Amino acid sequence: MITYISVFALGLIIGSFLNVCICRMPGGMSVVSPSSRCVSCGTPIKFYDNVPILSYILLRGRCRSCKARLSIQYPLVEFLNAALYIIVLNRFGFGSVAVLLVYLVFISSLIVIFFIDLEHQIIPNSITFPGMLLAVILGSTILPDPFLQSELLGFKASITGFLAGGGSFYLIAVIGKAIFKKDAMGGGDIKMMAMVGGLLGWKGVLLTTFLGSLLGSVTGVSLILLKGREWGSKIPFGPYLAIGALVSLFLGQDIFRWYIYAG
Ligand SMILES: [Zn+2]
Question: What beta strand segments (E) does the chain contain?
Fold first, then answer.
């Protein structure tokens, strides 16, 4: 029980840092300095007003100095990160601590990618460059195969996943550009999928791409039908891929098993 409470608290604190990343990374600003401040009036936020979720509730979602509304996204990101940490702990926590830590960092990166890509249609290189390198190093050495958890992923599966993820999205980008005469797939998606492939293997790439495309097209068509969005309006793909990667990590083994026995 104490482990769950500590991991949840850790998730809230890291979640608070993720908010800083989501705010600052798109503008290329440092995520460590200066300290957090109000986006409206620039007043530095006091440490006692920076307690995850709690401060938002006590301040009724407003800045103490200028009373400007604070985005609901702040407490939402904190809670989401903490909740997913609990799910990771539940699923992977009772083996290696190193594996647990890798997955916690992976989950947090996916949250940052989700919110930045949703708002700015970019996936920061400051996540995907180190992410791609670490994915292959960790995937080849300590990480289990998320589809066969009793076995290690290993170098061959990790590098195959890396090439399958990056390669297939690179191909889609090239073909898309040839057909539509504009960038259909961003470079960020290619790097993100190489990273996902290195960590989850080629099965992870397949499932992530499948789920991401399904979610993306359902959402895209709904937006067109319900809100009159135009065909061909730019829809970021990263958020859907992030959800697909999450589901692959948590449920890949079950989905794969179900598919094999059903098919
Ligand atoms: Zn303010």
Answer: 144-145, 148-152
